[in-house]
Amino acid sequence: MATSQPILKADDLSKRYEDGILALDHLNLQVQPGEVYCLLGANGAGKTTTINLFLNFIPPTTGTCFINGIDVTKDPLEAKKYVAFVSENVMLYGNFTARQNLDFFAKLGGKTALAKNDYYQVMRRVSLQEKAFDQRVKNFSKGMRQKLGISIAIIKDAPAVLLDEPTAGLDPKAATEFLEIMAELKNEGKAILMSTHDIFRAKEIGDRVGIMKEGRLVMERTRQELQYEDLVKIYIDYMKSEPLAIS
Amino acid sequence: MLKTIIGREVLDHLKSARFQIALLITGILAVTTTLINVQDYAVRHQNYLDAQKELRSEGFEISVFREPQVLSVLARGKDRDFGDQARLSYMSVPSQLTGYMNVSRGRSRSLAQLAAIDFTFLVRVILSLFVVFLAYGAVSEEKANGTLRLAMANALPRDKLLLGKLLAGLVVVGGVLAFAALLSLLVIVLHPAVSFSTSDWVRAALILAGSALYLSLFYGLGLFVSVITDRPATSLLVLLQLWIVLVIIYPNLSVRAAEHVYPLPSEDVVLAQKQAVSERFQAAIQRANEGISRPSPTSTDRLQSLEAWSGEAVEMAKVDEEFGRRQSRQMRRAEVLSLLSPAAVYDQAANRLARTDIREYDRFMGGVRRLWDAFVGRYKLRITDPEAYKQTPLPDFSYRSDPTAEAVAATWPQWMLLVVINLVLFALAYTGFLRKDLR
User: Fold this and answer.
1) pLDDT tens string for chain A (247 positions)?
2) Concatenated DSSP letters for B249-312?
3) In angstroms, rounded to a whole number, what is the distance separating the alpha carbons of residues A40 and A24?
4) How confident is the model over B295-315, as pLDDT tens digits?
5) Would residue A179 count as lying in a domain?
6) Integer CA distances (angstroms), B301 to A76, B4, B60, B249, B305, in order
7) Which of A126, A194, A112, A127 has the alpha carbon at shortest distance from A160?
8) pLDDT in tens, B316-357
9) Phi/psi class of residue B319: alpha, beta or left (left: φ > 0; alpha: ψ in -120 to 50)?
10) Entry pTM
11) In a domain, A222, yes or no
């Protein structure tokens, strides 16, 4: 694992919604280049809120997010140049082909001079079937859409990748393929922050795993530490424990 | 980046089934409505020419015919309801027109709105509804299906995305409008009975420009509602309700409100007023009739008869004119009240430009009244000075039709109102989108 400047950094980050719910409570985390950080937690634990804050979809109540050293709240457009995003359920423009979707999002990501072949290469890399390249995506399966979603992230070539439960609902083969691509991106030096429910895959791919409960990061373990601990037991113990005192 | 967004949006619209269906319906309706209106105009115009040829005679009474407005093929307004013929005699001043051969029309000042099916109806009702279907999902659909999050995860300024959506929408709406206009104008140009003058083309172009403004307003409204709602079904529901209120309910409601706030005298009251006039002149008319019934009436008898009958006609006309003035005032109040509805604003402006509104009718009736005065004056001359009568021909009927410059000046505030509403809606959509929670 690299130890240089973190690409993703949450500094004392909190979010309280208008209805009073505290979704995130003083979160501190860092993701280094070439590192995969998995956020585990039940629904409503604050995983997606964390990702939303990094993408400036919502403003933080307190604290700061940094992407590549840039304060996301102060300069969101500059910060977003350095991050790619894959959601739980990648939805694309159904009337467009896979290549047209890729082309559109690549241009939004600043890649304006790509050739048709560049798109094909990326789609081959994520093992999307060749015949699907120029098909409308409205009939794509979830696995195919997720592959196209990761293609969009790859083609942007950003140093950080945010993934919001990307393997949820995928069959085991598709999920395994997906994680292989994650491993490749990690080896290319990308900083990856992935929220997930999947404890086994988190252990498999994560260089660090954090467990969130009621908006707080209640535990963090490195891959080395997890060699000697049972992540499943730790996770279940935390989930069963008493509710946290509200700060 | 703006180009990329516009390109995608336009292509997405063009590929959608709703666009293709709407385009097909628009094309069919543009051709059929224009064809029907052109045929109708051709028949009415031919009737006018025939009537001019056959009925133009001077004697006890004369007839004046109203030429149908050529732009009624695009914006029929009340042109068909005005009536076609005014019959003048010294015994009566026509208060409204009849159909040819005196077929009663009598709806010249009817307040009923938005009835004629023509090009402006196509724009006002069908295309505005199409625009609603085009715009409702602009933001809410993308929010619901997640593409908005995916797009906004990039260094994409929100204002640029919204502007791109607006411009793309306007391109598509403009394209559909141009398509409809092209088909309509093609039908008009190819029909031998219709011939536009330069001023007609200018007016038609202004109606088209106004149509574009009107439709862009609905796109702006769609964009705004789409921004403030999170589900496409909700935005569609809200927009459909707004559309029904703005296009159907409010224009008619404003008419009913004007009728209520500014009531007209009932038919009984008007009849009673006319009865009173009739009674006032009864004795004079009786005397005149006795004089004129003698075996050889003198010129004094004839003059007395003329003065009695024309005097009564003038007083009767005053009752009708007062009623007409109050009706016109009521109509103008209804127009002012209906300014909150873009559909009513568009309708009023388009009909004014097409010369198919009540003002053109009032101008025509003003000409009829002037001719009646000349006619009665000349009739008197016939009795008092037959030589002078022979040397003084009855002037041809004429009236000053609404000049293009005046129509443009008069409709300018209405178009400006549509521009302002457009800008306000975009500003609201912009503000809403900047604050939008993208979760």
Assistant:
1) 445 689 899 999 999 988 888 888 899 999 999 999 999 888 888 889 999 999 999 899 999 999 999 999 999 999 999 999 988 878 889 889 999 999 999 999 888 888 888 999 999 888 888 888 999 998 888 888 888 988 999 999 999 999 998 887 777 887 888 888 888 899 999 999 999 888 888 888 889 999 888 888 888 888 887 777 777 777 777 777 666 554 4
2) IHHHHHHHHHHHHSPPPPHHHHHHHHHHHHHHHHHHHHHHHHHHTSSS--HHHHHHHHHHHHHH
3) 14
4) 877 878 888 887 888 888 888
5) no
6) 98, 88, 17, 59, 6
7) A194
8) 888 888 888 888 888 888 888 888 899 999 998 999 999 998
9) alpha
10) 0.84
11) yes
Q: Which of B149, B157, B438 sits opposite A77 (nearest CB)?
A: B157
DSSP B338-389: GGG-HHHHHHHHHHHHTT-SHHHHHHHHHHHHHHHHHHHHHHHHHHH-HHHH
- Domain residues for the domain of A16 are 1-82+160-166+191-247
Query: A85–B149: do the CB atoms touch at under 8 Å?
Result: yes
CB contact under 8 A, B149 and A55: yes
Examine residue A69 and state whether it is found in any structural domain, yes or no.
yes
What's the structural domain count of chain A?
Answer: 1
Q: What is the CA angle A61-A65-A67, rounded to 5?
A: 160
Q: Tell me, what CATH number does A237's domain have? A: 3.40.50.300
Determine which of A78, A93, A135, A156 to mutate to test the interface with B (most B C-beta atoms within 10 Å).
A93
A131 located within any domain: no
Considering only CB atoms, B154 lies closest to which of A87, A109, A149, namely A109
How many degrees, rounded to 5, is the angle at CA B438 between CA B436 and CA B439?
130
Nearest C-alpha in B relative to A149 = B150
* Rg, C-alpha atoms of chain A: 18
Q: How many A×B Cβ pairs under 8 Å?
A: 73
